[in-house]
Amino acid sequence: MHSEAVASRSADQRDSRESRNGRPQLDAVSLAIIEQLQEDGRRPYAAIGKAVGLSEAAVRQRVQKLLDQGVMQIVAVTDPLTVGFRRQAMVGINVEGDVESIADALTDMSEVEYVVMTAGSFDILAEIVCEDDDHLLDVINKRIRALPGVRSTESFVYLKLKKQTYMWGTR
Predict the structure, then answer these.
(1) pLDDT per residue over 42-77, tens digit each?
(2) I need a labelling partner for 86 at 20 to 30 A (CA). Which of 38, 66, 97, 111 fits?
(3) Which of the pair, 118 or 18, is modelled with greater confidence?
(4) Could you read off the pLDDT of 73-123 as tens digits, one per residue?
(5) Are 167 and 38 in contact (CB under 8 A)?
(6) For residue 93, what are the β-bridge partners?
(7) Rounded Cα–Cα distance for residues 156 and 90 (Å)
(8) Residue 112: which residues within 8 A CB-CB, separation 6 or more?
(9) CA of 128: how far to CAs of 57, 109, 155, in Å?
(10) DSSP 8-state secondary structure symbol assigned to residue 70
């Protein structure tokens, strides 16, 4: 039992180093745990431990640390159509001035699911999930376009979602 605790502490120290950019530097075991959870977010810690060579307790500690560090989240992913949201769109936004302040304002909107600052035709791309077209119009016209610094928007309304996955692994 003592050697398992020492191995767990040693593995815990190994997985917690930070790289030069301040992000956690993950070892192969942590990456394997993430891949196990990407395949099935409800997979028992004992099964993950068996797959990666750690005890259930060590996996539980690693998972909690990965969650605390913001490396990953464990969430239920829904199909918006089945839970009452009939309209999705990607909105390209051009900004005058500080792009980050607009991105921050967008992240505060409950309808906005995804915000990325880009290089290219748009300064920001924002994915929006709404109840219907009227709701989408309200979000774009009265809330996004009303933000100081928003120069223009272009909306790409989703007609059909063919693929949505979070299985890119850890490479």
Answers:
(1) 999 999 999 999 999 999 999 999 999 999 999 887
(2) 38
(3) 118
(4) 998 877 777 888 889 999 999 999 999 999 999 999 999 999 999 999 999
(5) yes
(6) 124, 153
(7) 5
(8) 106, 126, 127, 128, 139
(9) 39, 9, 10
(10) T
What whole-number distance in Å separates Cα of residue 121 and Cα of residue 141?
Answer: 20
User: How far, in Å, CA of 122 to CA of 67, rounded?
Assistant: 32
| Token couple for 139 | 């979000």
Are the C-beta atoms of residues 96 and 153 closer than 8 Å to each other?
no
**What single-letter amino acid sits at 88?**
Q
Distances (CA, A) of 13 to 65, 121, 155: 11, 44, 47
Q: Report the greatest alpha carbon distance in the chain.
A: 63
CA–CA gap between residue 123 and residue 102 (Å, rounded): 10
Give CA–CA dist 78/154, Å, rounded: 26
Those residues with Cβ within 8 angstroms of residue 126's Cβ, 6 or more apart along the chain or in another chain: 90, 91, 93, 106, 112, 114, 115, 116, 144
Closest by CA to 122, choosing from 151, 145, 146, is 151
Sign for the pseudo-dihedral over CA of 102, 104, 109, 115? positive
